[in-house]
Amino acid sequence: MVYCNVGTYIFYLNSSFEGDFLSPDDDRIKALEPIKPEEISISPTGHILLALNSSADSGGVGGQDLMVWGRNRESELGNGKKASLVIPATVESPDGDRVMLMTKKATEVRDLHGKVWKRGVKVEQHAVAGYECSAVYWKIE
User: Fold this and answer.
1) Residues near 120 by beta carbon (within 8 Å), at least 6 away in sequence
2) How many domains does the chain divide into?
């Protein structure tokens, strides 16, 4: 088992590569609670994106925290720098808030030609690590 203390998170991997993040002390039970990883994307060039389930139904704030680390030669970690990160860090928006991957109901979805394709559908954000790049996109449920 490998342990990694990441600021307010502790991450561990067992031999089957199932991981858990542990949140800071929970005031309700005075103990650490696990935060389950939802998705992980690993690029061929050495950076990693990890979405943690911090949604309201899991006792969190309403979305998935996006954690990043690894090689960052082309600013693929989205933090505005080119220095690599050896431990996971949250991504911050330009206004200083942490980036949360959200789910919502879209009033309408348009195709590439601008025509309405569907109305009132559930969409959710996903993050993917590519070759020296990263992207967050909306997926129709």
Assistant:
1) 105, 106, 107, 108
2) 1
* Interval 122-135: pLDDT, tens: 999 999 999 999 99
By three-state DSSP, how is residue 57 classified? helix
How many secondary structure helices (H) and strands (E) does the chain include? 0, 12
Closest CA to 12 of 37, 38, 39, 40: 37
pLDDT digits (tens, 9 = 90+) for 16-64: 434 445 555 455 666 666 777 889 999 999 999 999 887 655 555 668 8
Per-residue tokens: 97: 């808030």
Alpha carbon 89 to its chain's center: 10
User: Cα torsion for 53, 58, 60, 62, to the nearest 10°?
Assistant: 70
pTM (2 d.p.): 0.71
In angstroms, how far is the first alpha carbon of the chain from the final one?
35
The residue segments making up the domain with residue 65 are 2-140
How far apart CA 42 and CA 113 sit, in angstroms, is 32
